[in-house]
Amino acid sequence: MTPIRDAYLTAAQAAVNLINNDAVASAWDKPSALEGFTVGGLASHLGGQLFSVQFALTREQPETEAIPITGHYERAAWVGADLDAEVNVKIRKNGEDRAHEGPEQLRSDMAQALATVTELLPQQPVERTAPVPAGPWALTLDDFLITRMMEIAVHSDDLACSVRLETPDLPSNVLDPVLSLLTKLSVARHGQAAVLRALTRAERAPSTITAF
């Protein structure tokens, strides 16, 4: 199995562990740190980073040729969209709809998804491609998993902050590809100089180098 696939399973387990924390269930219906999401809705959106991989691995691989990972973010409608844009409203609604089933159901569904993915990932050929929720295009399976690891890393921080937990540290095999992706996207959006200055020259750094 490729290193990225191993790393994804580590990230997925970390997401399961966070959502299994009693603090998440206790705050389920309360507002989260993300505007428009309850804690339950945000937890469900985080869980979606397992469900989308489960979906990809239990379907035939797409017939369309995979695009580069940066091209995925150039095409995705949610990138740069306003909070109230249709695509973002739909994302929040999907999370909130699943949250209505309650924390125990989400935990059960995530455990099943993780078991399925753990079984199927080692069976996938290196050239395997995967559909993406933002489609209709495809990514290589490893690139798709990197996008899910990024979502897990970012939304784990959101969820932990929402329920006043320490954000879980992720191991380097997860964090390194996530930071590499976010750095590439930040450079594409703000330019090399802005990112270099933000990391090394605070006196002339821009106010933000967010990737999205």
Summarize the entry for a quick read.
The protein is an all-alpha fold.
Outline the structure in words.
- By secondary structure, the protein is mainly α.
- Helices cover 61% and strands 3% of the residues.
- The protein contains nine helices and two strands, in the order ααααααββααα.
Query: What characteristic shape results from the CA principal axes?
Result: globular
Count of DSSP-assigned helices: 9
Helix-strand makeup class: mainly alpha
Order of helices and strands: HHHHHHEEHHH
How much of the sequence lies in strands comes to: under 5%
- Which residues form runs of ≥5 with pLDDT under 50? none
Major sheet description: 2 strands, antiparallel
Tell me the radius of gyration: 17 Å
Number-wise, the strands total 2
Helix content: 55-70%
Q: Strand arrangement, largest sheet?
A: 1-2
Q: What integer is the average pLDDT?
A: 95
Cα end-to-end separation: 31 Å
Which short descriptors sum up this protein?
212 residues, mainly alpha, 2 strands, two-stranded antiparallel sheet
